[in-house]
Amino acid sequence: MSNVENLVGDWLPLPDVARLLDVSITKVHSLLDERALAALRVGERKFRSVPAGFIQDGQVVDSLKGTIVVLADAGYSDEDLIVWLFTPDESLRGRPIDALREGRKTEIRRRAQTLAW
Known about the structure:
Blueprint: H1 3-8, E1 11-13, H2 14-21, H3 25-33, E2 40-42, E3 47-51, E4 55-56, E5 59-60, H4 64-73, H5 78-86, H6 96-101, H7 105-114
């Protein structure tokens, strides 16, 4: 298992994401294309999967898309941005993804924007 797989822990294959969001698999692919979600090939069979932490109450975490876009614009690959979102940060008292799930998007976006400089 790779470091990013261990760091994230819970992964959802794309069909499971579709079920949780109550959308078609085609819509999940669109969400990935729109940068509303990020996915990696993980596990023994290398299925394209999304971190479970990206889904909250049957929806994509509200402020995730903008954060992914900011990180991608800073040159982060999907793996890099997933690692950044799931790495604990003492100054946040948790991980950036947890802050996003708690609605603290401004703080996280500000930090993400500084990565581009």
